[in-house]
Amino acid sequence: MSDLDLCYTNARKLARMIRTRKVSATEVMRAFIARIEQANPKVNAIVTFLPEQALKRAKALDRKGAVAGPLAGLPIAHKDIVPTRGIRTTFGSPIYKDHVPDDDHAIVERLRDAGAILVGKTNTPEFATGAQTFNPIFGATRNPYDLSKTSGGSSGGAAAAVASGMLPFADGSDLGSSLRNPASFCNVVGFRPTPGRVPNWPFPNAWDTLWSLGPIARTVEDTALLLSAMAGPDPRSPTTHAEPGSAFARSLRRDFRKVRVAWSPDLGGAFPVDSRVTRALRSVPGVLRSLGCVVEEAAPDLSDADEAFQVQRALGFVEAYGELLKTKRDLMKDTVVWNIEQGMKLDAARLAKANVLRSNVFHAMRTFLERYEFLALPTVQVPPFSVDQPYVTEINGVKLGNYMEWMKSNYFITATSHPAISVPAGFTDDGLPVGLQIVGRYRDDFGVLQLAHAFEGVTEVWKRRPPL
Fold first, then answer.
1. Would you state the pLDDT for residue 468?
2. Taking the CA of residue 258 as centre, how many other CA atoms within 13 Å lie in the half-sphere pointing to its CB?
3. Which of 138, 145, 288, 467 has a CA-to-CA distance to 443 between 20 and 30 Å?
4. What are the extents of the domains in the chain?
């Protein structure tokens, strides 16, 4: 097996090969280091690179003789907003360009305990703001399928690295789209679990349920593998679920005959969708029917989602960066400043209304999914666009109101708190990836993974590698 084939071997299989000594952790790490050195100068996905440290840990693992942990020997790179003790974490901001945290994030601890070996940090936009990965410290991350296009964001570095074979999987976070959008743009899987499935510590608001941390991988099985090591309760993160992460280590096989699935190309006309995306997803209902699903075109009424999300997002920006704005405004991106200031304008009446609207949205999705078990819709309203364009301003002639509105297909789902995954589903006529978003019942994260696994097994779109 060539080094490149080793890098594109599924994580689950690769871990098994290391455990059974068919390949050493050192060989695996050397292959991934070589791939990073080859591909990263073109893509700019990994912004802090630790090859010597990673190789040292791989050699130590081989010397032990017995390999422990489900991820033992597999390389991981954490998103550059995830604190890593003793290793630079910049948040994509010049304010923190030399910042070295004193503590690890909870998921850093967990993945290390599961045996994963840290090889670096992945690129993110400033404070993970915006679904286009660029920042003034490291520059832009390019799409491995077309280097003139964006990888999406805010976990764009993670998605591009996985798609390029630089990592078997990666972690990311998702407020409005940040796991699902880059997954769609890079032909990989990105899973936003139910908030609380993965602990988020440290974080300014311990009670926040709008953010969700989750995995990115090339297959759904590998996504579930990484989630099994990330998920589970943590006393420092009070919203976490009691169910252990091991629940996601089970087989994803399931018979989908007679399972009811709602398909919606635009969430009932709630937002415009680029015709190239629509064409790329035209086979989706047929694929779902081939699995035995009963498919109907239908959509929940999420008309309250926009106000609920925009208000609660703006409040979160004040919580996280309001104090920073007072002294570092000149070092902050214009969209970050705008979002903080939107939050500062909020009054109690509008905040209270947003909470009520978000409750309405949750119940709208909950009751809709009593009739259907799943909702399928486009992950992103547009295909990957120019890496030089900060964000989309118009779709099908419809002008958009702010830097987020081209991501309504994602953040409307965020507002419902239901689990959602982006799975590779097709390509545009000019070879750009397009993902399908699958939404499941509240806390039925495993069911979402099962349907996505069945879908990818029929389409096999994920097998198409980027032409790097």
1. 87
2. 0
3. 288
4. 3-463
What single letter denotes the amino acid at residue 1? M
Residue 95: what pLDDT? 98
State the amino acid at position 168 in one-letter form.
Answer: P
Residue 68's pLDDT is 79
Residue 79: what pLDDT? Answer: 98
151 a catalytic residue: no
| Catalytic status, residue 359 | no
| Helices and strands (H and E) in the chain: how many | 15, 17
What is the Cα–Cα distance from 172 to 241, expressed in whole angstroms? 19
**pLDDT score of 154:** 98
β-strand partners of 202:
none
Helix (H) or strand (E) holding 171: strand 169-174
Residue ranges with strand state E in 220-342: 260-263, 294-297
Q: Does domain 3-463 have CATH number 3.40.50.10310?
A: no
Q: Is 178 a catalytic residue?
A: yes
Integer Cα distance of 331 and 427 in angstroms: 38
Residues in the chain with pLDDT < 50?
A: none
pLDDT at position 1 is 81
Query: Which helix (H) or strand (E) segment is 140 a member of?
Result: strand 139-140
As a whole number of angstroms, the distance between CA 230 and CA 210 comes to: 18
Active-site residue, from 164, 173, 178, 409: 178
Please tell me which residue in 154, 212, 264, 417 is annotated as part of the active site: 154
